[in-house]
Amino acid sequence: MPTLDCLKKFLKNRADLLETLEEAKINNNISKTESQVGHNTKSFTKHHTPKEPTCSICKQHHLLFSCERFRQMSIEQRIKEVEKSKVCSNCLHPGHDYKSCRGGACKYCNKKHNTLLHLEAPKSSSVTLTSYTQSKTVLLSTAQVNILDKHGKPHTARALLDNGSTSSYITRKLCSKLGLPIHTIDATVTSINNQCTNITENTNIQIHSPHNKNYSTNTLCLIINQISNSVPHTYIHRNTIQIPSCIQLADPDFNIPAPIDLLLGADIFWQVMGTGKIPLGKQQPVLQETELGWLISGCISDIQTQNTNQNSSFFVNQISDNMNRFWELENISTPSDISQIAQQTCEEIFTSTTTRKDDGRFVVTIPFKQSPECLGQKWQSNDLEILQKANLLSNSLHSTINLGTKEPSKTLGIYWNTNQDTITYSTNIENSVSDNITKRKILSIIGQIFDPLGLISPSVLEAKIIMQKMWSLNLQWDNHVPHDIEVLWKKFIQSLSALKQLVIPRRVFYDSSKHIQLHIFCDASQNAYGGCVYVRSHTTKMRCMYNY
């Protein structure tokens, strides 16, 4: 349902559009009255009817701004049509350009272009580090290339050539459109100011040049959500740049702001580079010959207005990630939204096949996978009979599994010994001790604790209390912590080494259990509260077993 703000914006845009069209109407009748001195007065009226213009789109007798098909186009398509029709980009009339036009400016930004050609400035959610004002625009090296999809069909994509990048990148949107196979990786990309971003997927693409049929290349691209904002950041008039008519540009729409689908790094940059180079003059860009066509890049004098550029930086905060993971492990799990395809399929099978028998019992179809070959091939169990039937006994005996292999480095990690069916804990405490104890280091170590089962919650509780005290004191990230917190932290670090001796049986109930009792204890204080459940069972041999 549209909001009131959307309705107001629509009505305002509509009113501005109608006002622009009304101002552009020309009075085709010119009246002139001539009076002579004397008793006889004669009046002359001259009617001048100019030749009716022809629309370049629908070939009807009206001006371009009155064409219904023109107004239904996107703003980018309107800009291309104005350049093609060679009419003034300010009043949309033929016979002059925007520099000599006496018409009014855009009603949105007050610049020298028609309101119908106004492009909204892209809204950025990035963190602005610096901003400055300059009177020139820098063109980046962009090209339109053909990329083959999974069926071998070419698709046009807009690429940015960057010899300062060691890798090539593709947007997730374009990769999904092409249907290319995606491979899982674990890579870290370091950018400006030594900021790191984790990349988890890549794909192989095949690039063809639209201007050179003999050129094609394959390259590996990392998959990211967005490469950059629209390039260039503002619309540039083509008539401000004198480009020779014989030149085939790699990106014919270099002057129109548009998103980047592909970034080609240094491995492709120097491969496509040619020998031809044409400088276009002082404060003008340079034409560079490549296999993809002629690139146009460099500074261009902006005579229309001054532009404010913003330099932004994105980075991944490792401490923030560790803390988020820590709280996710400690929080009580809640049902998540069904978003994965497999979960949706199970939900559909349940709702469509569930029936009720006469005796009142419900019957539902088992959700078998449609592709059995996609089943997992890695198994682990503490049951020898299962391992023997699965022909995996030789690879599974005396195996200890790290249950936190996806974690970068753990101060405290959990392991499962499948031979003894026990759970143990390992700690690299010697790597966590430091003379300079700061809030940043403490939170980083706490975030690396991996205890999804909560078996050592009493020990982890000490770290939570320390973290709570630091937040209440509003400590700086890199300042040394107070003495009382330092004492508590060193005591907690020393206690972690004792966890190496802790061996917890994973199994709670035994096959021979005859009588089972639950003994529940709970307690609370000003700092925390907790509970523990003990399972007391008697076997058939009257042996009493305890587990918690």
From TrEMBL:
Organism: Spodoptera exigua
The protein's name in its UniProt record: Peptidase aspartic putative domain-containing protein
Top-rank taxon: Eukaryota
Pfam families: Peptidase_A17
